[in-house]
Structure formats: C-alpha cells, structure tokens
Amino acid sequence: MGFSAFLILVSIIQNYHEQRLQDEILETTKSYMVFQTELENRIYTNIYLLNGYVAYLKTECGLDWRQSPNYLSSLVENREVYIRNIGTIMDTTIVSNYPLEGNESTLGVDLATIESQKQMVLETKKTLKKTFQGPMQLVQGGEGFVVRVPVVREDTGYWGQVSIVLEAARIYEAIDALAEKTSLNIRIYNAKEDSFYSYDENPMKDPLVFVISPSLMNWKVEVTPITGWSHFGATHIIVGVASLLASMIVGFLSYYSLKTNYRIKHNSIHDSLTGLLNRHFLNDYQELIISAAERRKALVGLLLLDLDNFKNINDTYGHGIGDEVLIETARILRKVVRTNEAVFRIGGDEFLIIFPMIEDATVLENAGNRILEMFHDEFRIKDHDVWIASSIGMGVYPTDGKDFEEVLQVADNNMYEHKKSKKN
User: What GO terms describe the biological role, i.e. biological process, of this protein (predicted)?
Assistant: First the structure.
C-alpha cells in the first residue's frame, strides 16, 4: 500500500507539472504570435515603401533616377521607419543612394563584384523576385539588412533593382522592446542558420521554434518564456505534501489508472493514433491564428486532404493496415510542412494543414504539389504493397470566407471537386 501511495504521489505531481507546462506552451505561443505580428508589421512597413518607389520610377519619371530625391524625401518624411538609405541599381551597379550624405562611397559600385552581396543581387536579377539579406557589413560601413526589389520594364524586361538598407541597431532595439513586452526570451537565426540576435545569451532549454516570413526573410525563431519553463518549486512541494496526505485516503487507486487519465487529457489535444493535433485543439488554434491575421491584414491558408478509397484499404487488408496507412500519412505530412505550419487529423481519413501569415495562395499550391508527389507510388506496409492516393482542397482566409468555418467549407468543396475529377 505504501509503494502504491508513493506511485500515486509521483503521478499526481507529474501530471500537475505537465499540465502546467502544456498551458505555458499555449500561452507562450499566443505571446509569440503577438511578437511576430508586430515585428513583421514594423519591418514590412519599411519594405512596402520600396514598392511605391518602383511604381514611381516606372510611371512618373521614366526610370530617370535623378528625379527621385524629392519623392524619396516625401516617402520617408514623418514616418517611423528603420531605413538608413534607399538605393537605385542599374543592372547590378549602384547609380544613386538617398540620402547621399554618408553614402557617397557606394556610387558606381558593381554589387556583383562584392562577395557578400553578389549572390542575392544576382538572384534578384535572375528570379525577378524580392530578396532579403542580413545582417551584413555594408559597403559604406556599418551593419544592416538589405531588401531588394527588381525593376522590370514591360518592353525590355529586367532593368535593375531598388534597395533599402534597414539599420541593424534599430531592428535589434525593436526586437528587444517586443521581447520585453511579450515576456519572451528570443533567439533569431537568418536564412543561413546563423544566429544574429539573442535576448539572453544563456543557453535556451527546450525552445519552441517558429519561422518568420519564410518566403522572404526566412528567420528561424527560438522562443521560451523570459523566465524559462516552469520547474518544481515551493508551489509544487506544497502540492506534493497535500497529495501525499490525500494518497493515504485514495491509495487503493491504481497507478496505471492515473496514467490512463493523463493520456485522456493528452489526447484531448493530440490524436492518439497519429500524434497529430486534433479537432479539439483546432478550436483554440483557429481563433489564435485568425485574430493574428486580422491584426496584420494577412492571409491564412487551409489545405484539406482526404485519402481516396480508404474504406477499400480497410476492407481488403484489415483495420490494422488501415491504421498504419493513417500513421504513414501523418509522417508524410509532417515531412512536407514547415515549422510554423500546423497539421491536424480532423476525421477518420481527413487531415488539415494550416498555413499562417501567407502572402498569397502560391504557398498552398506548392505544398499541395509536394504532397501529391509523395503519394505517387505504392507504400510497403507490413509486407503489403498498398496504393495510397489523396485528394486535396484549398481555401484562403479572408478571400474565401469571413470566418474559419466558411473557408474550411470552401476547402472541403474544392477537395471533393478534385476527387470527382479524378474519377471522371
């Protein structure tokens, strides 16, 4: 009886600790969403100014950059921006920089000959897409982040680029302020996996990992509460003593029974078969993601996936193989998605991937293509060759609906249209 009581005590304290940790993870995720939304807003406010300058160059002054200083002055005047300078680049050579003072040394520099900038300049030229680089040492001295936008003529194609340099020191100050505001310990890595910012230089234990703007900045962010995750302290000791007294009364309860109760609580958030998030957690998560998107005026993508003829797999091979098929599907989806994208099992053979803070539907289309390619061949499951095919449907908030359920219904309709087209 005494050993049984001890096991019960251990289980109660462990369950209490793990439940608090799960609550902390959810609250930390919510705080991080506030951090990411505000940081992206501040940085993208600066980046959007470049789009205006490109339009001005092409429509107002016929690509004569010498007419631009007055426009650029009005562009940044009375705005809370982190811009150090705005450059105009013909082909790959800097022909102007605003303000000129302090940037004279950059004029005439061919960035394709500067080792630290060559790759991104040529990538912008080749792909005709916006690029983000940094932090890096600048030609004119100092450290900054560089954003480049291609300038493309309708008649002759690529003409050059415009760029902004964001002051690294001011970006770090903004991150400091947001980390303190949200009570988070933050460490950030750039696209090359180099750490360039740490709120606290001490090692982080079991951080959550997110990605900011994967299509442009592609910053990996490690996050913990600013004081670290909860650990056993005075509160836990008091609970432990109280639990010990209680265990003398309820000692007849089985240790394994308590572990089963814990698993039930765990499964209220995770699917017990695949380990994916489940529909119960989806209710909390969708509110968090939609509210963050509304604050930032961003898009949220939904990709719904259903296995074709799954009933036939169960009927032919048995439900054991059917379960293995679902587990294999979950493994594939985990492999396809990125860190900040969440995968749910929301029905028997129905799965949902949520893509937060996307810029357009291209992210969904690319993910959908990757998934369909992964299901192209037969799978070897417990000595059986099983053909697994899937149908997918997509929806974007708020483009396809005013709330999460409407967009999910659009994705569902698109999924069944896809399934129907394959039968035809």
Answer: signal transduction
Q: Give the pLDDT score at 286.
A: 85
Token readout for 37 is 């939304």
Question: What global pTM score does this model have?
Answer: 0.54
pLDDT tens string 372-396: 888 876 678 888 888 888 899 999 9
Buried (b) or exposed (e) across 132-163, using 16+ Cβ within 10 A?
Answer: bbbbbebbbeebbbbbbbbbeeeeeeeebbbb
Cβ atoms of 94 and 107 closer than 8 Å: yes
Residue with tokens 């053979």: 349
For residue range 293-349, list pLDDT tens digits in order: 887 788 999 999 999 888 888 888 898 999 999 999 999 898 888 767 889 999 889
Give the 3-state DSSP-derived string for the chain, with helices as H, strands as E and coil as C.
Answer: CHHHHHHHHHHHHHHHHHHHHHHHHHHHHHHHHHHHHHHHHHHHHHHHHHHHHHHHHHHCCCCCHHHCHHHHHHHHCCCCCCEEEEEEEECCEEEEEECCCCCHHHCCCEHHHCHHHHHHHHHHHHHCCCEEEEEEECCCCCEEEEEEEEEEECCCEEEEEEEEEEEHHHHHHHHHHHHHHHCEEEEEECCCCCEEEECCCCCCCCCEEEEECCCCCCEEEEEEECCCCCCCCHHHHHHHHHHHHHHHHCCCCCHHHHHHHHHHHHHCCECCCCCCEEHHHHHHHHHHHHHHHHHHCCEEEEEEEEECCHHHHHHHHCHHHHHHHHHHHHHHHHHHCCCCCEEEECCCCEEEEEEEEECCCHHHHHHHHHHHHHCCCEEEECCEEEECCEEEEEEEECCCCCCHHHHHHHHHHHHHHHHHHHHC
Q: What value does the mean pLDDT of the chain take?
A: 82
How far apart are the C-alpha atoms of 84 and 52, rounded to whole Å? 17
The better pLDDT of the pair 50, 234 is held by: 50
Which amino acid type is present at position 169?
Answer: A
